[in-house]
């Protein structure tokens, strides 16, 4: 069975109730490719608003979750609380959290495990910095990030993971990876899935690309055999997000 195309929209720390309502209403009233799975990720404060407004076909993702079930963890949100708010997805390991908030591979892997154990699906973000790419360390870095998750997850749990390859140098910079650069890393990730998890994961786990995806570059990227969709930041706040969802039609 072919892998279902997946487009995520990461609003990051942008928007207030009025603008988020506008974005969701626009998506609800747009013609979206029925073969694309769409998941939007507003700031935590607007998760319940977004879930209540969005068409049930549109998934909603938190931008973070904590690895402990409850307790004295001021400012954190638990898996149970997300499930209670009818949220089914979470973005984990975004480079802004890895780089700015110094989240480690191990912490990210523990959060991924806690999320999946508690019934959430995970958009698991990985990717290299410019310095790492220039030092020819791209595959080494993404392999290290994936290996940390593989230590925590059972083989079956990979069915709940969408891997987002997001080169850090391409996020929010307007510098998109070339189709060849994206395909090369996606193919390496798929090979890693086969070697480290199993052939089922290799065939079925979706690997999406993120980093300055726009309505202008999405179609060409979407032609690549191992690009199963996108994680979109800036452009997910604009009406052009609909064109990215529809990149394959
Ligand atoms: C992101 O936030 O995951 C992202 C890819 O951002 P942008 O599309 O703005 O580069």
TrEMBL record:
It catalyses: D-glyceraldehyde 3-phosphate = dihydroxyacetone phosphate. One of its GO terms (molecular function) is triose-phosphate isomerase activity. One of its GO terms (biological process) is gluconeogenesis. GO terms for cellular component: cytosol. It holds the Pfam family TIM. It comes from the Eukaryota. The keyword Isomerase applies. Its EC number is 5.3.1.1. Keywords: Gluconeogenesis, Glycolysis, Isomerase. Pathway: Carbohydrate biosynthesis; gluconeogenesis; Carbohydrate degradation; glycolysis; D-glyceraldehyde 3-phosphate from glycerone phosphate: step 1/1. Gene3D superfamilies: Aldolase class I. The keyword Aminoacyl-tRNA synthetase does not apply. HAMAP family: TIM_B (MF_00147_B). Homodimer. Belongs to the triosephosphate isomerase family. This is Triosephosphate isomerase. It comes from Penicillium ucsense.
